[in-house]
Hints:
Low-confidence stretches: 1-11
Helix content: 25-40%
Bound molecules: 5-hydroxymethyl-3,4-dihydroxypiperidine
Radius of gyration: 21 Å
CATH architecture: Alpha-Beta Barrel
CATH topology: TIM Barrel
Strand order of the largest sheet: 3-4-5-6-7-9-12-13
Number of domains: 1
CATH class: Alpha Beta
Mean pLDDT: 95
Strand content: 15-25%
Amino acid sequence: MTTTDPEAQVGQExxxxxxxxxxxxxxxxxxxxxxxxxxxxxxxxxxxxxxxxGKVHGGDTGEPACDHYHRYASxxxxxxxxxxxxxxxxxxxxxxxxxxxxxxxPRGLAFYDRLVDELLDRGIQPVATLYxxxxxxxxxxxxxxxxxxxxxxxxxxxxxxxxxxxDRVQLWTTINEPWCSAFLGYGNGIHAPGLVDPRGALEAAxxxxxxxxxxxxxxxxxxxxxxxxxxxxxxxxxxxxQDDEAHRAAAHKVDGLQNRLFLDPLAGRGxxxxxxxxTAWLGDWQRVVRDGDLEVIASPVDWMGVNYYSPTRxxxxxxxxxxxxxxxxxRGVALLPPRGELTGFGWEVDARAFxxxxxxxxxxxxVPLVITENGSAFPDAVSDGEVVDLARTRYLVDHLxxxxxxxxxxxxxxxxxxxxxxxxxxxxxGYSQRFGIVHVDYRTQARTVKHSGRTLARVISRNAVxxxxxxxx
Length: 473
Ligand code: IFM
């Protein structure tokens, strides 16, 4: 699908995206809103975690973040300037139900009314994520996602929030990256609530999926026919250095815990037997997975959100070797350090692995895909009013080419959301990592559109990327 665009630079070949391809950028409530005690918002696990010394880089907290709670209107103005067709944001559960159950805070809902109305006024389609990691602290005090009851509380919250915005928001996502909530929050404890409990991580994974399914069942029956529901997964492409049985087995194990543990039950295939067998020493699946749960989890979705940043490299290791970090539930696998070109955050840059992942998902997932996050962190600086972030621009354009390649090979990808619209609170890394296509000066709250943001705007206006080079004119 290579054609020449008369508007493009002379001789520049373009890779065109499908005509109705959705272009957007994404954020999450805790990462940008600030105003953590405004208008009756309750505390979340991330407020507690960030207030705990040593947990977040530099002692950073959710204040002030990007003060988006007060600056949402001008931020939507920036989106319009960039030509975004859609904006993916998350709703803060503790703004809407401060204790995670029961009483609803109307001022919390009113903020999202204002945001959605502003988006619609500017012709930008809102894409709402119901849960992006900010669990109300009171639910964590009762076990958080390790407690089955949290899944039911999530469904209640999803139903009331969906009902409130149903007249204006058509695209919904239940949960963002359940793998991170389970394995970083309860597995190695680098994310809130900061627990090192590998068994609890598996329980949390199941309850997050159950919460997703219960929410689907709570929202779908009353939803207008044009509403489209999804879940967002951070799926990884697993790379090995050799193509032999031992390496393939190591890759299969990691693929099981990161990808198939989520993809299979969502697709109605149940939990992968090899993962269940391999983690039996950690969890009592029979106790945790109750009759009927798998049917609930497999409630049909309309699309699947895919978040991709970098590949995971693995190798076989002695049978009793337990890898550090989030894969602590796996024995006999070694995680290899990233190599080659790295982002400022030290993440490996590999756009080809993105195409491979999408092609695999094209085979394994029955619904259309949307890239709900993709981006890179580099240390940017404003100079003469500009941020010339060429490394991020290259990352962006190369990954868009990778998406285009997957589409040209038949994968049904319907949209792309850059992570992130704004520099923001990067979880345990605090404000030290900048992922934005718009720079934020946290002292003055000034916004500066980066070179990568202007590049994305040009891509959007042409609905195409050039076949080569990074100068989009
Ligand atoms: O900032 C996060 C986001 O909240 C979830 N996906 C990965 C991003 C970069 O780490």
